[in-house]
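Please decode residue identities from the backbone states below.
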């Protein structure tokens, strides 16, 4: 995996979160069209920079984890 691509993908994730607010991982994956591995690397990049956070919420009887910008 090329580090430049991770940075580009992090930009895609950041843009999606900036535009839509908090999102689930599956919604982010769908909106950014990234593979699971590429999304994980991009989120790791953003997390290392302190730009994303996660929160857990109960919705419709199930627990969901949301990712949002800090």
């Amino acid at each position: 995996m090329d580090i430049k691509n991770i940075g580009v993908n992090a930009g895609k994730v950041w843009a999606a979160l900036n535009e839509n607010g908090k999102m689930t991982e599956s919604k982010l994956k769908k909106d950014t069209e990234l593979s699971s591995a590429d999304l994980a690397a991009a989120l790791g990049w953003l997390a290392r920079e302190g730009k994303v956070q996660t929160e857990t919420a109960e919705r419709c009887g199930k627990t969901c984890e949301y990712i949002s910008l800090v």
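Observation: Helices lie at 3-20, 25-32, 36-48.
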